[in-house]
Amino acid sequence: MPDTDAVRVIAGESTTTFFTNSGSDGAWRPEREQHGRLVTVVKPDGTTLVHDESGYQPVAWLTRPEHVTVERERPASAEGDRTVVTAVDGDSRLRVRVDAAVRETHPTSASGAPVGTCDCGGTLVRDTGGVACVACEARYGLPAGATVTEESCPDCGLPRFRVERGHAFTVCLDRTCESLDRAVTAALDEEYDCPDCGVPLRVLRRGGLILGCDAYPDCTFSAAVPDGVLSGECGCGLPRYEPRAGESSERCLAAGCEHDQP
Fold first, then answer.
1. How far apart are CA 214 and CA 202, in angstroms?
2. CB atoms near residue 81 (< 10 Å)
3. Which string of DSSP letters, residue by residue, matches the chain?
4. 178 with 153: CB under 8 angstroms?
5. Among 109, 156, 151, 113, which residue's Cα sits nearest to residue 134?
6. In DSSP terms, which residues pair with 232 in a beta bridge?
7. Residue 163: its pLDDT value, please?
8. Cis bond leading into 44, ω under 30°?
């Protein structure tokens, strides 16, 4: 339990790690880790709560643990000191390392799994809105289904992400550096003809990416660029693509196509 009746509030750039000790060898194993500008609250009963800038739900917590310590340490390879909060309850352990900790008003940021380094030198984390820097508050949106890779952009050094839009594409987080729209256009623009009139289909952004007939408005055919990988050819001449989650067979690019049979 804490050695004080006061509530401890520790703010700063933090790394939280939640460990479990459920194996037969008795070793602590990290289960999840998050990084960001966070506020850690240690209550008199030992309850440890870690908050970021969003909502009321903490990003990490341990309620009424058996043991809590709040210690300062000076890392050999870093300037300044670090505060380490460790809460242990049975087979669960929460460790919060706070660099250059402050105990007054401190800005918070998004938090999430670290995915790389921002060009300002801060840590980039994956959160519900995409990818954000915990230092300079730069933010990068991610399209649906995207996965941030360990690969860095050769031009700007930011992480790249992988997403499927007819083909699998890997592009930079910064769309001004590498644009997913340009990559999809280079791969699919005028690659297929309209099944209604035979005119080439162009890649267009209409909310999402679509393949639209170049004869518009005389021909209004369009089809969404799939969140998947093209895998064959339908009887109408358009490509088929791999099944989505929960689907058992390939589908034609054109919804409701009469040739669309498994």
1. 6
2. 14
3. --SSSSPEEEEEEEEEEEEE--STT---EEEEEEEEEEEEEE-TT--EEEE-SSSSS-SEEESS-SEEEEEEE--TTSSS-EEEEEEEETTEEEEEEEEEEESS------EEEEEEE-TTSPEEEEETTEEEETTT--EE---TT-EEEEEEPTTT--EEEEEEEBEEEEEESSTTTS-HHHHHHHHHTTSSB-TTT-PBEEEEEESEEEEEETTTTT---EEEPPSSBEEEE-TTSSEEEPPPTT--S-EESSTT-TT---
4. yes
5. 109
6. 240
7. 94
8. no
CB atoms within 10 A of CB 215: 16
Contact indicator for 159, 173 with CB cutoff of 8 Å? yes
Predicted local distance difference test score (pLDDT) of residue 79: 59
Residue 115: pLDDT band by 50, 70, 90 thresholds? Answer: very high
Q: What is the pLDDT of residue 26?
A: 73
Q: What is the mean pLDDT of residues 226-250?
A: 81
Amino acid sitting at position 55: G
Q: Which residue has the higher pLDDT, 121 or 23?
A: 121
Angle formed at CA 55 by CA 51 and CA 60, multiple of 5 degrees? 30
